[in-house]
Design goal:
By secondary structure, this protein is an alpha/beta fold. The chain has two domains: 4-92 and 180-214, Periplasmic binding protein-like II (D-Maltodextrin-Binding Protein, domain 2, 3-Layer(aba) Sandwich); 94-178, Periplasmic binding protein-like II (D-Maltodextrin-Binding Protein, domain 2). It has nine helices and eleven strands. The chain has helices spanning 14-23, 29-32, 54-62, 73-79, 120-129, 145-148, 163-167, 189-192, 194-204; strands at residues 4-9, 39-42, 47-52, 68-72, 84-88, 94-101, 113-117, 134-138, 154-159, 170-179, 181-185. The strands form two sheets. Strands 2-3-1-4-11-5 form a six-stranded mixed β-sheet. A five-stranded mixed β-sheet has the order 8-7-9-6-10. A hairpin with a 4-residue loop joins β2 (39-42) and β3 (47-52). It binds 1-O-pyrophosphono-5-O-phosphono-alpha-D-ribofuranose. 1-O-pyrophosphono-5-O-phosphono-alpha-D-ribofuranose is lined by residues 141-144, 157-164.
């Protein structure tokens, strides 16, 4: 039978995902010695681990070429359209926030603000919910630079330790969402490979601890 395919975001979530799969009793030796390989056969060939960029995981799962994915809630909020988000995995905990210069009142004044973000859709949604007219500028990385370079009045971004904000003279002004790694499943796959996917979720669920509250 075709192995189940699970796509995992390279980087921050990769290690914790592997630890979780090992706790499920899966042989993950292929992941330990992966070199530059992007598809790793685990669990005696029953599960393929696909290493991809977060945004691409959504694409692969929505198109059904991966049955499942492990990806941050931020990526789901920003780009997912049609997949099932079935479980909070409890790791990769962080927060989406609005930040601006220390001591600055982001909301002061009447002119439209400019906000930089790697997450333009989340940022747009946040300000629409406040009926605020804001210019959103998409930045690909180290978004903290945008207010320092005076391109933006504030940023909508992820905070984990707060170290990057502190080091760059910025502070949290508003909390937008709690984030963590989520298990997502392809909509058709949930029916067509129901037994295998249910089996996977059933093995996973008792190993997951989800704390209440913020990161
Ligand atoms: C994220 C985020 C912040 C930083 C926050 O960036 O965009 O820049 O982490 O973490 P901290 O609160 O622990 O300092 P990431 O490291 O993913 O890299 P990027 O900016 O290049 O996307």
């Amino acid at each position: 039978m075709k192995p189940l395919r699970i796509a995992v975001a390279k980087g921050r979530l990769e290690e914790e995902t592997q630890a979780l799969l090992e706790k499920m009793g899966m042989d993950c030796s292929a992941a330990k010695d992966k070199g530059r390989k992007l598809i790793l056969p685990l669990d005696g060939g029953r599960l393929d681990l696909v290493l991809a960029k977060s945004q691409d995981i959504i694409t692969y799962v929505e198109h059904g070429v991966c049955d499942m994915g492990i990806v941050g809630k931020d990526t789901i909020m920003e780009s997912a359209q049609s997949l099932y988000e079935v479980m909070d995995l409890g790791f990769g905990r962080c927060r989406m926030i609005l930040a601006a210069g220390v001591g600055k009142d982001f909301y002061q004044g009447f002119g439209a603000k400019t906000v930089a973000s790697k997450y333009p859709n989340i940022a747009r949604g946040f300000f629409e919910s406040k009926a605020m007219d804001v210019n959103i500028v998409k930045i690909e990385g180290s978004v903290e630079l945008a207010p320092l370079l005076e391109l933006a009045d504030g940023i909508v971004d992820i905070v984990e330790t707060g170290g990057t904000l502190r080091a760059n003279g910025l502070e949290e002004k508003e909390h937008i969402a709690h984030l963590s790694a989520r298990l997502v499943v392809n909509v058709a796959g949930m029916k067509l490979r129901k037994e295998e996917i249910d089996g996977f979720i059933h093995r996973l669920r008792p190993l997951v601890t989800v704390e209440k509250g913020g990161a």
